[in-house]
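Subject: mismatched residue count in predicted assembly?

I count 1149 residues in my input, but I want to confirm that the predicted structure covers every chain. Input:
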Amino acid sequence: MRTFLKVVGFSFCVILFYALYASYGIPQVKPEAPPVEEKLNLGSMTMDQFIALGDKIFNGKGTCTLCHNPVGGRAPILDSVASMAMEHLKDPRYKGKAKTSEEYIKESMVIPSAFVVAGFGVKGTNDTESPMPNVTTGAIGLNEAEVDAVIAYLQKKAGQEVTVKIPTGAPAGKDEKAAETAPASPAKKPEELVAKLGCGVCHKIAGQPGVLGPDLTKIGAARKEDYIRRAVLDPDADIAKQCPTGPCLPGVMPKDYKDKMTAGEFEMLVKFMANSK
Amino acid sequence: MKISRLLLAVIVIGIFYSFFKIFFGIILKQPIPGSLFTMYMFFIIIGVLLVFSFTEQGAKELMSPIKDLLENPEKMMMRNVVFGIVTIFAGFITYQQVKPSFEAPLELRTIHPAPPSNISAYNKSYNLLTLENPFMKYKKEDPEKFKQLIYEGGEVYFKNCFYCHGDKLDGKGHYAHGFNPLPANFMDVGTIAQLQESYLFWRIATGGPGLPKEAAPWLSSMPVWQNFLSEEEIWKVILFLYDYTGYVPRSWEKH
Amino acid sequence: MKFSKKITLTFFIILFLVLASPIILNITSKSSVFSLQPLSIVLAEEVKQDAAAAPAEETAVKEDKAKPAYPPAPKLKESDYPKVKGFNGRIVIWLAAQLHLWFAAFVLAVPIFVLIIEGIGVATKDERYDKMAYEFIKISLTAYSITAVFGGLLAFSLIVFYPDFLKYMANIFGSTMLAYAFLFFAESASLYIYYYGWNWLKHGFKKWVHLTIGLILNAVGTTLMFLANAWVTFMMSPGGVDAAGVFQGNDWAVIHNFLWNPINLHRFVANVAYGGSVVGAYAAYRFLSAQTRDEKAHYDWMGYTANFIAIAALLPLPFAGYWLTAEIYAYSQQMGITLMGGVFAWLFIIQAVLIGALFLSANYYLWCGMGRSEGAVRYNKYIKYIAFVIIACFLVWFTPHTLVMTQAELKALGGPYHKYLGPLGIMPAKNTAVNIMILFTFLSFLLYRRANKVATVSWAKYGNIAQTAIFAGAIINIVFLGVYYGYFTNTVLKVGSSVPQVASTLSVIIFCIIIDVLMFKGAKDVAPLKWGNVPDRSQYALFLLAVSFTWLMGLMGYIRSGIRQHWHVYAIMRDNSADAFTPTIGYSAQIVSIGVIIFMAIVIFIFWLNQISSKKA
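Triage response: the counts match. Full output below for your records.
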């Protein structure tokens, strides 16, 4: 029995020593908590995460940077939109209902023509009509929470106080999920594909009203299949002379469409455009 | 007079203790930090005890003075004094440990934190697992161009980096002394020689604020260089760093 | 007659090598039939390969249809993880898995060296070996049922706490899980025949039947472990699935994922070392409670043998571990740096301390063992030098690259790095230290071997010179390589020194053993060797070895699993439970300690069971 107790005591002391050494002998680093996924329900989100979500939408799904970038000059840079908002609201050309910068940004996203920054309107309308689509519809289709996230991001970016409240209702990215599952099955109709790729954000094509890029409703009359094929895969190879808002610029159209369709879809799209006469 | 084995053991431990203190502390002027020194001494004491006790006779001799002190009725006075000293000493140690001090708490900073698998810079997302230096291919394909790129990288370095990281890339630039932690010393075998190029790209592009929490981003004053340099410039300066130091970026060739 | 015995023995060894080491075969042939994957898998794989080959040439759409539809990895929410009041799911799984692993490692390891010891017994015709082998297997038999109990507990707790994860894994590993279950029957059957048939199959030809059963037992056991390893390594380095986690239908690809072979080798070697250490603890326990001289002598000898097995397997273990780490780095830099440079870096300081404890206690045991004979006294004076070198290497080994310093110390050093000790923190220095530590442990063993003997061969003097020269040469070589590669050149891999260093260490061990065996053939004894004549302290060294080993396994197991961080399956299936966070070192050490206490309690219970069962009424 003595041996038994001695052995148990000895083993216990050794284990205790190791445990104490590991707990107190060396510094305790607290590892970072796992990164939060945006698809978590908004209720548990901190404001920083909400802003980060806005950042991601702004640069990704929202396709905002397609136009709001320093290269193309198609749309104003939004770095300080939140601080400029009050000035815009006082502008005599303003015809919306917003009172605060938050409301102004939201309005600009849903009813873009409420105020058009000078020089960025659709050509010939004298800056009364904006070429920007309503971001809550069509190919972009942000939901309310996502719009709020983008507003929070823009306010933060301008160094303004973030006034947006994190919505507690429906989970963000509900539509996102649908969009994610869509590519799994190839589109069957050209219209479907055009809607999926979001061509209509810029181009007038297949019933979509884009006014930024060249009108593609009669492209088949002017161009052959080979040209269309190249123009989709490598947009900067040939630049059309005239876009609705001014001369067309290189580097505006994304170059990654080849990764976004299957070969079958691509052929279908090319055929569709070649036949649009 | 024959010195007892216990005393001998204590002397041997004392010799090691003073060796570390004198050799590192006074001769090399690089004292060993307390936390490490404690561990060193702990294992030296264990080692000495093992050596002194592996034979039966040796163990007996080692323990005999202690046993004698504890059991011999004639040494009661001595015993009481020793117990008193031990108690006071233990109390002193405890006091030293718990007394309030103005010492700042220990900084624990991971110098090479694990990189995230994806980073975003330049409004793009980079996969650090597969990211490679786009200019590395010229090393074989076009050595002349490669040399030119390194030269350009050097220019970037001396226009931007050398103020802190030093003209010899040893982390001893003009401003270095104002920083804690010090700017990285690229000549050290423990810095860029141990890392992949993608890691450097991450550190340069996102700077101090891009560090994960465990690496105390608020301590690093490294600027977020993506705001000042182009992507190409960062890759070029990476080429320059490796060229100047003579190290080769870490990579795991396919075996 | 004797000649034929030798041939049979050789045949037996070859057979063992062929069957019991699928590792070798795995490396050489990826899909060989010999690689001991269960037949069902081989067949399934062939069928699937055929099936996959056909539509490959056709269009992409058709290929999608030809494949069996496997679901992608589910994206879980916190509410998908069932909660049981009063239990923390992760801790339950953690302890169940760890305890299962400890017992499984022990149970798989014991038959390996029992078979070897039994073989030695047959070869030397020494009855003692047979008796010892039997006693070893007896301990593992009780542990076997406990292994199964914990395996069941693990499975149940996975069902309770992580049902979706288990479902996903079952989708991919369904066939291997079934194969595992069937193999478990085979394992049980062969173990029971091996144990209960020991006396029945003791003599003559029957002994060979018995050895063959032992061989089958080991082959099945090792295969079982390899299968389970596949599940674990799949979680770390998933193969055979696409980015969304959709299984591609090839069983072999998911089994033979990136880290499978490194883990196989590492676990195989570590299990043997671990098994040896636990059996050593058993012998120590019996030694300490022995009443008679004979009993003491027997258990002393048993403890010595077990310790020898543990140390023999411990020596190559750092190399296997090194390979595993290198492969982890190669698989993912993120995982590699999390492991070595990030939050887990401090765990490696603890690991260094523990492995140092292993080496020190093993050496101490050998030194104490020299007291078994009067003849060993002449070597006692060398021990202090060996101890000095081992301690010095050990100090190098656990010197961290990043030092914890107070502000005053930082100022005194002028920076976060120590100018002279900092370089000891990187790999070449540590490799050098560990190689020298291994060499000097081996030297302790050599001294122990010759403690009681005087060589009688005429060339003994030259033999000694040769051994000294080999040792000196290797040490110079190792230090040179370490310093040169570590500090004066740069290599692409930065670890270019490790392979030649390991090679020198291994060749020293091999050559010195050969010389030693030849030199001490027919050597005369200086004084009688008295088994049982060792101090009790040495037995506690054996206990320290077993406890440290167990604790170390628990800790390293945690690290291996922990570097996945918040992933169930790395980069494929995310852990979204409340416990997805990586805990601090102290927290995990406490859990591991609790596990070790439970384990030791059960183990001592098993020892006690064996003690009462061997008591005669």
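Chain A touches chain C through 33 residues (CB under 8 Å). Marking this ticket as 'not a bug'.
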